Amino acid sequence: MRGLLSAVLLVMACGRTGFDPLHDAGAIDGAGGAPHVHTAAGWTARIAVDLTGLVPYRPDDFMDGSNEILDNAPLAVAALYAPFTAALAVSAGRDVIELASDGTAIVHDYRPAVPDTSGPDQCAELVFGAPSDVGPALWIGATSQNSGDGLYSIDPTTWAIARDASNNNVNGLAWDPTGAFDATGVPAIYFIDQNDVYRRDGSDGSASAIYAEPDTMGGIAIGSSELFTTNDLTEVDLDRIYSSTHALQTIAATPGNFAIAEGPATASVAVVRDGATLAIYADDGTEQDLASSTDPDWIWIAASAPTAPHPLAGGYVVLESNRTLDRDDLVYLAPGP
Fold first, then answer.
1. Contact 98, 91 (CB under 8 A)
2. Could you tell me the maximum CA-CA distance found in the chain, to the nearest angstrom?
3. What pLDDT, on the 0 to 100 scale, is given for residue 215?
4. How many Cα neighbours within 13 Å face the side chain of 307?
5. C-alpha angle with apex 329: 46 to 7, nearest 5 degrees?
6. Which of 220, 224, 152, 166 is nearest to 192 (CA)?
7. More confident residue, 148 or 326
8. Cα–Cα distance between 181 and 188 in angstroms, integer?
9. Which residues contact 97 (CB under 8 A, 6 or more apart)?
10. Strand partners, 153
């Protein structure tokens, strides 16, 4: 039986309300509080939500194992779809922030009764998915040195959390809504643990290994003919795994890091590069920078690429943090004048 963990709820208003994607080109400036955001020609940006204080930052949230102290800074953002009434979800340590389209926030606290013995210890990955055996849910990939790892799902009505699989260090998560990858025709969750890239087969913990990896891959985006992931085996690479053959090819490399944006891929994938730039990489390695943070204190952590019928479809939601100012925001980037 899949165990359910209850959540402690905190309801509060965000610093800025509403996700109206139609905004003026001057929405981000000194008065708007984000002079550090620079956009490419044809793109605009604004602060969608001020997350500051929703989950108060703790540098010593809990001891993970015997030698690592984890904080609870925001780590991931995902777009939500019906039957969820909320528009976005953000993870922060062992909390998940539910954000309605009017800006109302509810904090769901999934802290284990005893830290490090029941998960999730750290909500590292988020994605919406609706496999037939579970139905629509928010999926969490969790990592831990002890027993808080695995794949979890959150119910769209109650926000109760259930452990779906106990794989060690799930640090990549994606949803294939049509079963296009490998032409299975079956919608499925894909995930990465410390050993393999998997396609989830059912709630009994079964999964099909797609590609063996030596604990160097993290982050996934799924397209019809390829799966994008990051790989730090020798340097930090952006790779793709071909459908059917599962051959691996490197697309690009960076001395820093890539964080793959949550959401589907096509023949290109959106990534946060080096904690400062949102860029699009085509499968031939061609790259386009859309926006960047020009202030080194404002670190871009993660991004989401909502799709229709989401109210923010066509743009990108970037999760950013500034520990010097103790602030966290969601920046919305959209094509426009």
1. no
2. 53
3. 81
4. 11
5. 135
6. 220
7. 326
8. 9
9. 51, 54, 55, 74, 89, 90, 91, 105, 106, 107, 108
10. 139, 162
Report whether 268 contacts 281 (CB < 8 A): yes
**Taking the CB of residue 211, how many other CB atoms lie within 10 A of it?**
17
- Whether 303 and 286 have beta carbons less than 8 Å apart is answered as no
Complete DSSP assignment for 154-213: E-TTT--EEEEE--S---EEEEESS-TGGG--S-EEEEE-SSEEEEE--TTS-EEEEEE-
Confidence of residue 16 (pLDDT cuts 50, 70, 90): very low
Tokens at residue 287, please? 């790259």
Name the amino acid, one letter, at 29.
Answer: D
85 secondary structure, DSSP code: S
Q: How far is CA 56 from CA 41, 99, 169, in A?
A: 36, 16, 25
Token pair 């087969």 is found at 201
The DSSP bridge partners found for residue 174 are 190
Question: CA distances (Å), 157 to each of 13, 80, 101, in order?
Answer: 20, 12, 16
Contact between residue 124 and residue 170 where contact means Cβ atoms under 8 Å apart: yes
Give the Cα separation of 190 and 111 in Å (integer).
Answer: 25
Q: In angstroms, how far is CA 178 from the centroid of its own chain?
A: 20
Task: Let me know the angle formed at the C-alpha of 268 by 214 and 320, rounded to the nearest 5 degrees.
Answer: 75
Residue 205: per-residue pLDDT: 74
pTM of the model as a whole:
0.90
- Could you report the per-residue pLDDT of 209-240, keeping only the tens digit for each? 999 988 889 899 998 899 999 998 777 899 99
Q: What is the gyration radius of the CA atoms in the chain, in angstroms?
A: 19
Asked if 234 and 220 count as a contact pair (C-beta separation under 8 A), the reply is no
Structure tokens at 13: 């208003």
Q: Where are the beta strands (DSSP E) in 18-103?
A: 37-39, 43-50, 62-64, 68-70, 74-79, 88-92, 95-99
